Amino acid sequence: MRNANPWQAAVAAGVLLLAVACGSGGGGTGGGGAAERKSVGKGEGRVDLIAWAGYAEDGSNDPRADWVHPFEKQTGCKVNTKIAGTSDEMVSLMKTGQYDTVSASGDATLRLIAAGDVAPVNTRLVPNYRDIFSGLKMRPFNSKNGKMYGIPHGRGANLLMYRTDKVSPAPDSWKAVFDGAPKYSGKVTAYDSPIYIADAALYLMKTRPALGIKDPYALDRTQLDAAVALLKKQRQYVGEYWSDYQKEVTAFKGGDSVIGTTWQVIANTATAQKAPVKAVLPKEGATGWSDTWMVSAKAAHPNCAYKWLNWIVSPKVNAQVAEFFGEAPANAKACRETADPHHCAVYHADDEAYYRRVHFWTTPVPQCLDGRKNVTCTDYAQWTRAWTEIKG
Amino acid sequence: MSVTEREPGARARLAALLAPPLLWLILAYLGSLAVLLLSAFWTTDPFTSDVVHSFTADNFREILTDPVYRTVALRTLGIAVVVTLLDALLALPMAFFMAWVATGRLRRALLVAVLTPLWAGYLVKAYAWRVMLGEHGIVNAVLAPLGLHGPGYGTTAVVIVLAYLWLPYMILPLHAALERLPAHHLEASADLGAGTLRTLRSVVAPAVRPALLAGSVFTFSLSLGDYLTVQIVGGRTQLLGNVIASQVTLDLPLAAALSAVPVVLVVCYLAAVRRAGALDSL
C-alpha cells in the first residue's frame, strides 16, 4: 500500500482528537447557577437578540414600524437581531451563549431555565415591570422558585388563515384543516414543528371526547397516537409545511396555500401585500403563545439587555409591537397608546376568561400537566420523533 | 533522481511546506468527522436538549430499526441517483456540442453561459425556481395553453431544481475530457474501418467515462447533502438533510448518527467509482 503512512497519521490524529473530546466532555450540565443582577450600569454599546419575526422591527419591513432605531439612539446599544422560526431554534441558539436576550415562548422558557441557559431577572431593575398585567406575573412558564426569569412581552393565539376567494363557506372550525382537508387537497398548510401536534390534540379534545384529552400538552401514549394518526391523514392534503413566516406569506399570496394555521402578523403582512386572506379564531379555541424576554446566563452585554427589556415593555413600544404583530400587549398602560383605541379589547388583553380558551405553548413532560397521576405522559423527545414520522 | 539526494535540506523544506495543509486536512477535516462520529454515541436530556456524555449505540439502533429513517434515506438516495442521471443526459450532448461543434465566439459564449449561474447565490436560484414553479408561476403559465399543469412543489420540483443547480459540475469535466480527445484518434478509428457507433464505443466512451464518473461524484454527493432546496420547493417532502437539520436543534447525537448515513452512501459510491477505474487518471 503506497499510501500507508498518511493513513496511519490520520488515524493517529483521529484517536488523539477522540481522547481530547472525551476529556473535555465531563463538564456536565449545571442547572440555573447564574444569579440575578444587582444593578444596571452603562450600556456596552451593543445587544444581541433572538426574536420572533415582528418583535424587533427597525423599519426595514414597514417604515412605520421602527422601535429599534429610537432604542439605539436613546441607549447607545446597537441592536443585532436574529429571527427564529420555532421555539426549538431559539433554544439551540441560546445554547451557543452568543446572545444576550430572547423572546421565548412557554415551550422554550422552562427548557432554558432547566438547562441553566438563562438567568433570573431582577424585576426592580426594569421599572416598566410594575405595569405588566398581574395575570402574566409569576406564572409557571416564566418563573421558578418565586423568581421571575424574564419580563412578559405579550400573548396571542395561533389562528386559522384562509384565502377568501378560494375557501367558502368561511371556516369557523379547525375541521377545515383536518376532517375537511380533502376539499383543499394540496393547498393545506401547517406549522413545521413538533408543537403542532398540540393543534391536532386540541381538535380531538373537542371532537372525540372519548379519548379524554384535558390538556393538548398532556397526552398519554394512546392520545398521542390518535393525534399522530390525524396528522398523518392531514399530511396527504398538505401542500407544504412552514416555519419561515416569509415562506407562508408568499405561499398564500401565490395561491399555493389556501388554508392553514398562521400568526396574526403573517395575515397582516399578506394583507398589506394585497393577498385576499382572513385569519379567524376557530370555535374550538386555539393553541397560542405567551412570550417572555429572558436574559442569557452568559450575556456579554447584560446592561444593554436590561435596557432592551425595559424598552420593549414600555407602554408606547409595547403598544407598537402588539399592534404590528397582532397580539395582546403585556403592559396595561400600552392599551392607552395603541393607534386603534380598541386594540386591547379586540385582543382581550386583560380578559383571563378568553385566554382560558387559548392553550399556551408548553413543553410536554412525563408528569402529566393536567394532573393525572396514574399514567405517564409523552415528553417532547417523543413528540419530536412522532413529528419526523408524521412527515414521513 | 529525486531532489532529496542532491540537496540534504530539501526534505526538511518539503516537510515544512506540506505540514500546514496536511495538518489542516487532518485536524479540521478528518478531526471534525471523528468528533461527529463520536458524538453520535452520546445522548441528550429529553427536556433541556443538553448533550449527556454517556456512551450508547441507541441512536444507531434507532436509525436502523425505525422505518421512517429507511424511507427518508431511500428517498434521498433515489433523488440523488435521478438527479445524476438527468444531469448526465443533459450534459453529454451539451459538452459534445461545446467541444466539437461550436467554434470560436460561440464556444466561448456557451462556456460563459454554463459558468455564469455558478456566480449567482444558491438561495437566489432556489427562490427563483420557487416563484417559477408556483401556482401562478411561469411554468404553469406556459403549460396552461397545452392543457397541462406544472409539478407544483414536491419531489419532482426538488429533482428539477437540483439537476439545474448541479448541471455545471457535470458539463465542465465532460467538456474538458472531450476537448482533450485528439481529433486524429477519431480519424485513425475511421481509417481502420470503424463506423460512428464503433468509434463512440471504443474511442470516445473510454475517454469520457472517467469525466462522467467524476462529474457524477459531484452531482450525487451534493444532492445527498442538500436540504435547503427541499425546504424551498419540496412542499411536504423531507430528505436526510432536513431530518438532520430538524434534529440538530433538539437531539444533536441523533443528528450526528443520521449524518453518518450520507457519509456511508458517499463512501460506498466512491468505492464503486474507484472500482470502475475512474479515479486512476486523477
Automatic annotation (TrEMBL), chain A:
Q: Look up keyword rRNA-binding and say if it applies.
A: no
Q: Which domain of life is it from?
A: Bacteria
- Signal peptide range equals 1-21
UniProt xrefs under Gene3D superfamilies: Periplasmic binding protein-like II
CDD domains from the entry?
PBP2_polyamine_1
Cross-referenced SUPFAM superfamilies, in alphabetical order? Periplasmic binding protein-like II
Q: Which UniProt keywords apply?
A: Signal
Q: Which InterPro entries match?
A: SBP (IPR006059)
Provide the protein name.
Answer: Extracellular solute-binding protein
Species per Swiss-Prot/TrEMBL record? Streptomyces sioyaensis
From TrEMBL, chain B:
Organism phylogeny: Bacteria, Bacillati, Actinomycetota, Actinomycetes, Kitasatosporales
* Record-stated family: Belongs to the binding-protein-dependent transport system permease family. CysTW subfamily.
Q: What name does UniProt use for this protein? A: ABC transporter permease
Report the main location listed first in the record.
membrane
Span of domain ABC transmembrane type-1: 73-271
GO CC annotations, alphabetized: plasma membrane
What biological-process GO terms show up in the record?
transmembrane transport
Q: Where are the transmembrane segments?
A: 21-42, 77-102, 109-132, 152-172, 211-234, 254-273
Which UniProt keywords are given for this protein, alphabetically ordered? Cell membrane, Membrane, Transmembrane, Transmembrane helix, Transport
Q: What species is this protein from?
A: Streptomyces sioyaensis
What domain of life is recorded for the organism? Answer: Bacteria
Localisation per UniProt entry: Cell membrane
Topology with respect to the bilayer: Multi-pass membrane protein
